[in-house]
Amino acid sequence: MSIGSDVIRDVVLVVVLVLAVALLIALVVTRRRLLFARRREESADESAAPQAAVVVHSKKVDDHDARRRQIEVLSGRLGWRAPVWLETTAEDPGRGQTRKAVEDGASVVVAFGGDGTTRAVAESLAQTGVPMGLLPAGTGNLLARNLGVPPNRLESSLHIALTGRNRTIDIGHVELADTLDSPPRKETFLVMSGLGFDAEVMATTAPELKKKIGWVAYVVAGMSRLRGRRTPVTLRVDDGPAVQRRIRAVLVGNVGMLQGGIQLMPAALPDDGWLDVVVVSPRGVTGWVPVVGAVLTRRNHATVEHFRCKTVEIQADRPMFAQLDGDPAGKAQSLRARVDPLALVVRVPG
């Protein structure tokens, strides 16, 4: 073989080697670019995924650290980012946390606790258009029950909170005054507000008993308070005339179902733009028998009166126990309530 052939062979080998190295470099660069692009897309997809904020009442939720991890996993399975976790405090039961969640752009704010937590979250979400999800973990959970959200079933209720149907409902605004001359306390309610027997039962039921047997504890406490005197009140519905009654209880409702599926206000709907009022006036212990019969059979009776209104004002001769969505609210001698139609968006089964 000549020297010229050797040179040509060496040149060819060098060219092939250079091309192979160039091809290898090109493959490595291309792969890195693809990986970078894929990571950038995944990052973009993750940042575009919706994110919830969970306002949690930690004292109502057992082992809330484990529940938080469970919610994060379930959220990821549904295509949501891990939620922002906001705990209530003794000073703020959820209003400030909810406002912060709305300002930070939460896609939905989830109330994780009892009816009190739900009420605080709803108050700050009213008229914002941001939906409220429900993770009911209290004793009553009356709003959740009336809207078909299963209490104390975390996975099912979270699925509804993140992927359910939006339903716009009314809320109630109430002013409670300790005496006829004192300045009123302004509150919001979603279920019922009231004065009298039911509020007294809620205020005097032992927390330990509620924790052991749930809402049945209210029945136990109520049995011991059936005997009591009626209180004279003045009732004014909308612009109608003032009427006088002697009552054991008066309830103003946005929804009508109590625990156990009992329909106290059968005509009440959460999105009808009306408040429903029930006045209960039994005499003595035996007077409760027709009251129970009227409620269970949904028939009229002299001891159970129903009204529908946009506004209602009640003034009592003496301060009475008051309640808001099943939570004791001290005592009040006057109650004024009005409906705020279609003010709140709630996630419901759909």
Describe the structure.
The protein has 350 residues and is α+β, with helices and mostly antiparallel strands. It has two domains: 112 residues, 3-Layer(aba) Sandwich (Rossmann fold); 172 residues, Tumour Suppressor Smad4 (Sandwich), CATH 2.60.200. 37% of the residues lie in helices and 31% in strands. Strands 5, 6, 7, 8, 9, 10, 11, 12, 13 and 14 form a ten-stranded antiparallel β-sheet that branches. It is elongated and about 125 Å long. The chain starts with a helix and ends with a strand. The mean pLDDT is 88. This is Diacylglycerol kinase family lipid kinase.
What's the quick description here?
Belongs to the diacylglycerol/lipid kinase family. This is Diacylglycerol kinase family lipid kinase. The protein has 350 residues and is α+β, with helices and mostly antiparallel strands.
Overall CATH class of the largest domain: Mainly Beta
From N to C, what is the helix and strand string? HEHEHEHEHHEEEHHHEEEEHEEE
Round the Cα radius of gyration to an integer and report it.
30 Å
What would you say the CATH architecture of the largest domain is? Sandwich
Q: What's the end-to-end separation, in Å?
A: 86 Å
Do you know the CATH topology of the largest domain?
Answer: Tumour Suppressor Smad4
Uncertain segments are: none
Overall geometry: elongated
As for the number of domains, it is 2
Structural class given helices, strands, pairing?
alpha+beta
Specify the number of helices.
10
**What portion of residues belong to β-strands?**
25-35%
The largest sheet, given as strand count, sense and whether it forms a barrel, is: 10 strands, antiparallel
Mean pLDDT value: 88
Counted beta strands: 14
Helix content bin: 25-40%
